Fold this sequence. Notes:
By secondary structure, the chain is α/β, with parallel strands linked by helices. The chain has eleven helices and eleven strands. The chain has a nine-stranded mixed sheet, sandwiched between helices. A two-stranded antiparallel sheet has the order 4-5.
Amino acid sequence: MIVSVASGKGGTGKTLVATSLALSLKGKYNVQLLDCDVEEPNDHVFLKPAFTHSEAVSIPIPKVDEEKCTYCGKCAEVCAYNAIAVMKQKVLVFPELCHGCGACSYLCPERAISEVGNEIGVIETGYADGLDFIHGKMAIGEAMAPPIIRQVKEHASHQGTVIIDVSPGTSCPVVEAVKDSDFCLLVTEPTPFGLNDLILAVATVKELNIPCGVILNRAGVGDGKTEEYCQKESIPILLTIPLNTEIAGFYSRGIPLVEGLPQWKSSFLELFDKIGEIVNERSSDTER
Ligand code: SF4
Ligand code: SF4
């Protein structure tokens, strides 16, 4: 089963949930944690894994042979990302905008475009106390997260349980990380900002046809509007984590919740059981 952990906005406690869920399941299940928040991965800060392998992530970007180029402008016309521009006697490529789709080289009538690899990030794999751990890191100055996320997800085991830590928000990297999940946990806090971004995140996972549930972090602040919204939309609140200085203290020191306060482990195991029930119910409904 693949469970992604997402949030409409940053700073809601997504890392706390992803790491504690994975640590609670290890030993009982075969678990992998994939940190797909490639712009700012920080699960490793909590898990302190020993990395055993690293691999570069590259995308093919165009290289123009100006001897062959007739400056016809076709490559710039087909590029949906404005990553290539044709001047009177010059073709300019902007690697940071290029998605490596290959359309320009395919359609160049003079065969003047070849492709060269542009390194945009790195994948590191290893182990953290019996847990399989994989994360992707985007290179500084790069902006193309989806190819790195795809490569991280290629390491996902097809047996056992995979927990995916997703970047915050609702943009392309989120869709890339969440798609193909069996379930998506949405971590939020009960504030107006939290609710606003939760509504956007719910819309995204609904569009992907993935069942979801909410984890209410820092519960105790707010006005009950998040709970009202979840009830109205029939979205289950699967776990509530209170606003608590002890929990915040462990988090600020890079200690996973279930290590600092092991009594939380049973709550995360119960959470996983509830997810399993929802996923099973849904697949039986689909079979009917
Ligand atoms: S399509 Fe080919 S020939 Fe035309 S401007 Fe681009 S590189 Fe030059
Ligand atoms: S490979 Fe695709 S994105 Fe990159 S410059 Fe060519 S057409 Fe544009």
